[in-house]
From TrEMBL:
<dbReference type="InterPro" id="IPR004450">
    <property type="entry name" value="Thr_synthase-like"/>
</dbReference>
<protein>
    <recommendedName>
        <fullName>Threonine synthase</fullName>
        <ecNumber>4.2.3.1</ecNumber>
    </recommendedName>
</protein>
<dbReference type="InterPro" id="IPR029144">
    <property type="entry name" value="Thr_synth_N"/>
</dbReference>
<keyword id="KW-0456">Lyase</keyword>
<comment type="similarity">
    <text>Belongs to the threonine synthase family.</text>
</comment>
<dbReference type="GO" id="GO:0030170">
    <property type="term" value="F:pyridoxal phosphate binding"/>
</dbReference>
<feature type="domain" description="Tryptophan synthase beta chain-like PALP">
    <location>
        <begin position="95"/>
        <end position="331"/>
    </location>
</feature>
<comment type="pathway">
    <text>Amino-acid biosynthesis; L-threonine biosynthesis; L-threonine from L-aspartate: step 5/5.</text>
</comment>
<keyword id="KW-0791">Threonine biosynthesis</keyword>
<dbReference type="InterPro" id="IPR000634">
    <property type="entry name" value="Ser/Thr_deHydtase_PyrdxlP-BS"/>
</dbReference>
<dbReference type="GO" id="GO:0004795">
    <property type="term" value="F:threonine synthase activity"/>
</dbReference>
<dbReference type="Pfam" id="PF24857">
    <property type="entry name" value="THR4_C"/>
</dbReference>
<dbReference type="InterPro" id="IPR037158">
    <property type="entry name" value="Thr_synth_N_sf"/>
</dbReference>
<dbReference type="InterPro" id="IPR001926">
    <property type="entry name" value="TrpB-like_PALP"/>
</dbReference>
<keyword id="KW-0028">Amino-acid biosynthesis</keyword>
<feature type="domain" description="Threonine synthase N-terminal">
    <location>
        <begin position="2"/>
        <end position="80"/>
    </location>
</feature>
<feature type="modified residue" description="N6-(pyridoxal phosphate)lysine">
    <location>
        <position position="112"/>
    </location>
</feature>
Length: 469
């Protein structure tokens, strides 16, 4: 399996190189050169099988021959052995034909763990085989950071630098990033928004000298391996409720578009999905884009679903590439326009292709609270605010297909919002009982790429080894 960049000029790479590259060298995102297919019998056969077995079958074609089957299987088993629920991603029925897919039973209580636990093992494996170290950078609006810290803490081959928007993540999310005590973890509180943090990460990748000097690698969903691991739960969940014979739609709380792009990838691999529904909070760039055809960034508004407080939705570029017939030049033009003017107009045929598979809806703060309250009162089920955004959108997009809403975080990560909405203060799982009393360690930095690079060069063992060589 080879991978190509959405911007067309970066080298075609195999899986192990894409895994370590993160962002492509032309600024684009890697996608598989061709989509592997799974036939109907294979998909139906996923029902009732252990999650790790489904993961192996879905992931194996993307890895090609770069990692042996035995090593891949061992890493998958180990990654999902760290989850608190034996099913890894259980489906909870919430209505006659409605389910919440609980993706928050991993070590940091958000769906990011599903991919990050495997990504860390894959990276360590490839780095060990090559005798290399890497400098890992990540931007987070709250959950990717904690998941990365948990997955990479103590790894001898990586130093991890997580940029988070100072004062814009929940206290639980912050502690998960700042209290690991691991020497190879650096939490950086940036004076800015998540979009600023993500722009800093991309600027570091686009500086070839810095990138090479520090052996830079990324853990955001710009890294193909993150998306790859997230495809699995679409197959597992759909098969468990009767796919491929039963019609199924998914509603996905969306920010950086990685999670829903994984659903699109599952569809391209043969999973019949009726509709993929993008659910946004008041940071509704994707909902506006699908409605008007104009992708236009406005200021970020802080909401009670902070992990979705995003305007520049990185993985939308992957969809533009696919829906536009893999026209890398067109993607380049759109991305240049975004950089210069903060907006672009989606070409009409591309927009039509997107609308053929996707719907989008927005939920404001009052409706998010009302949904949390309603689910608590009527079903004794406590939704986290991100999942509540999606449940509210799903209710407005009911068709005759079975609806699966992705439950992306545990409500205990956002206790203040839940308490305000329904009076309940969700408790942290016993595994996290001491989290909020652990000492914190983080560094505050300005929204300045020079300062961030300087910090990384001073603290990355890969950079220091490179400088000494
Ligand atoms: C809890 C939660 N829900 C939803 C999202 C949005 O997912 P994506 O960025 O893949 O669209 C995020 C952040 O990514 C998140 O942390
Ligand atoms: N919501 C995310 C933002 C980064 O998304 P990613 O999936 O690209 O890592 C977060 O919680 O950090």
């Amino acid at each position: 399996m080879k991978y190509v960049s959405t911007r067309g000029t970066a080298p075609r790479l195999g899986f192990a190189d894409v895994l370590l590259a993160g962002l492509a060298s032309d600024g684009g995102l890697y996608v598989p050169e061709t989509w592997p297919g799974l036939d109907k019998a294979t998909i139906a056969g996923f029902a009732g099988r252990p999650y790790a077995d489904v993961a192996f079958d879905v992931i194996k074609p993307f890895v090609g021959g770069d990692i042996s089957d035995q090593a891949l299987k061992a890493m998958i088993d180990d990654a999902y052995g760290s989850f608190r629920h034996p099913a890894v991603a259980p489906l909870v029925q919430t209505g006659a034909n409605e389910y919440v897919l609980e993706l928050f039973h991993g070590p940091t209580m958000a769906f990011k763990d599903v991919a990050m636990q495997l990504l860390a093992r894959l990276m360590d494996h490839v780095l060990a085989e090559r005798g290399q170290r890497a400098t890992i950078v990540g931007a987070t609006s709250g959950d990717t950071g904690g998941a990365a810290v948990s997955a990479f803490a103590g790894s001898s081959r990586t130093d991890v630098f997580i940029l988070f928007p100072h004062g814009r993540v929940s206290p639980v999310q912050q502690r998960q990033m700042t209290s690991s005590g691991a020497d190879n973890v650096h939490a950086l509180a940036v004076d800015g928004t998540f979009d600023d943090c993500q722009a800093l990460v991309k600027a570091m990748f686009n500086d070839t000298r810095f990138r090479n000097a520090s052996a830079l690698s990324g853990v955001n969903s710009i890294n193909w391996a993150r998306i790859m691991a997230q495809i699995v739960y679409y197959f597992a969940a759909a098969a468990s409720v009767g796919a491929p014979e039963r019609k199924i739609s998914f509603t996905v709380p969306t920010g950086n578009f990685g999670d829903i792009f994984a659903g699109y990838a599952a569809q391209r691999m043969g999973l019949p999905i009726e509709r993929l529904i993008i659910a946004t909070n008041e940071n509704d760039i994707l909902e506006r884009s699908l409605k008007t055809g104009v992708y236009e960034t406005l200021g970020v508004r802080p909401t009670m679903s902070p992990s979705m407080d995003i305007q520049v939705s990185s993985n939308f570029e992957r969809l533009l590439f696919e829906a536009g017939g893999r026209d890398a030049e067109a993607v380049n033009r759109l991305m240049q326009s975004l950089q210069q003017s903060g907006s672009f107009t989606i070409p009409p045929e591309t927009l039509a292709a997107i609308r053929a598979g996707f719907d989008a809806g927005r939920t404001d703060e009052a409706a998010t609270s009302a949904t949390i309250r309603h689910y608590n009162d009527s079903r004794a089920y406590v939704l986290d605010p991100h999942t509540a955004v999606a449940v509210s959108v799903a209710e407005r997009h009911r068709g005759d297909a079975t609806m699966i809403v992705l439950g992306t975080a545990h409500p205990a990560k956002f206790p203040a919002a839940i308490k305000a909405a329904c009076g309940v203060e969700p408790a942290l799982p016993a595994t996290h009982a001491d989290l909020m009393t652990k000492p914190e360690d983080f560094t505050t930095l300005a929204n300045d790429v020079g300062q961030v690079k300087q910090f990384i060069l001073a603290h990355s063992r890969a950079a220091q080894a490179g400088a000494a060589a």
